[in-house]
Design goal:
The protein is an alpha+beta fold and 298 residues long. Helices cover 37% and strands 20% of the residues. It is built from 10 helices and 13 strands. The strands form 5 sheets. The protein has a 4-stranded antiparallel β-sheet with strand order 6-7-11-9. Strands 10-8-13 form a 3-stranded antiparallel β-sheet, with no helix packed on it. Strands 1-4 form a two-stranded antiparallel sheet. A hairpin with a 3-residue loop joins strand 2 and strand 3. Helix 3 runs antiparallel to helix 4. It starts with a strand and ends with a helix.
């Protein structure tokens, strides 16, 4: 390439984009690389401060910035992502799916150690959504020695530097405890925060409600509660409907921490090995332990 006066540029081919900035209106390439300058273009070029222009003269062994950016894209891009249009020597990679974004940090460091090139990415092991920008790459000078791109390609190896793996969706549930929340005395400000975090991984509150109520058989203290298929839960609800008073699992109602731990330990043993003998231990811990606590309180 060579530098010439803009007034003499008619008929020549631009070797890089020409950006026009009008505050509040545009900041984009007014003329693209490869554009053949006409007489009508010259006043526009002068108005954006271009008194001299680089026009293209192909030299063996030297690459234009756009060609170099395309070579960098090839060593970075993997499946589940697509490139932007090359613009002023820069290409961006954009996620095609929701998933986990990963970078081979060691190889990226080796590539970026090559002079006059640059690949910038998000941090590795980050959650991304479809449409998120993953990386940007460019050749820093207007033209670059092709040997430097070959060096970068060698440092990168055969596998792409970047990867987006789709989520393998799992079920998650949130249990918010506390009688003050259940009775509406205070607003639950914790659950919405957790739900927002889970949505990043494709898990919604409806998924959690179904898992808790149907798959696990629980009754949850929220408006979205679904009728449980758990026979024990339904029997407990029937007792309450018949006028029996349930015992809240909180410190103000329990006789003592010792009684709670004893019943909890017995229930854990029964859950691990649901035999009649272990259920008898649950009954003993609950009834006899309560009687013991009641006698001690007199």
């Amino acid at each position: 390439m060579r530098l010439i006066r803009t007034e003499d540029a008619a008929g020549h081919v631009l070797c890089h984009d020409m950006t026009q900035i009008i505050p509040g209106v545009t900041k984009d390439a007014r003329f693209r690389k490869g554009h053949v300058v006409t007489e009508e273009d010259i006043p526009v070029l002068l108005s954006i401060g271009k008194e001299h222009l680089y026009v293209w003269e192909k030299t063996d062994g030297m690459l234009h910035e756009d060609e170099g950016a395309e070579r960098l894209r090839k060593i970075a891009q993997n499946e589940n992502m697509h490139p932007s249009e090359v613009k002023e020597g820069k290409i961006e990679l954009i996620a095609d799916i929701d998933g986990l974004f990963q970078v081979d940090v060691g190889r990226l460091y080796d590539v970026n150690s090559v002079d006059e090139i640059m690949i910038a990415t998000r941090h590795t092991n980050m959650a991304v959504r479809k449409g998120d920008k993953l990386a940007g790459m460019r050749v820093i000078p207007l033209v670059i020695d092709e040997k430097k791109l070959e060096e970068a390609e060698k440092a990168a190896g055969k596998e792409p530097l970047l990867k987006v793996t789709p989520w393998k969706l799992k079920t998650a549930g949130v249990i918010t405890t506390g009688s003050e929340v259940y009775k509406g005395l205070i607003k639950d400000q914790f659950t919405p925060v957790v739900e927002k975090k889970l949505e990043t991984f494709g898990v919604t509150s409806d998924d959690g409600v179904k898992a808790m109520c149907k798959d696990m058989g629980f009754t949850i203290p929220f408006k979205k509660n679904m009728k449980s298929d758990n026979v024990l839960v339904n029997e407990a609800n029937k007792y309450t409907e018949d006028g029996k008073t349930p015992v809240s699992w909180n410190f103000s109602t329990m006789p003592s921490e010792e009684w709670k731990n004893g019943v909890g330990s017995a229930l854990t043993s029964y859950a691990a090995d649901p035999t009649d003998a272990n259920w008898a231990k649950v009954t003993t811990a609950f009834v006899d332990g309560w009687a013991k606590e009641a006698a001690a309180a007199k």
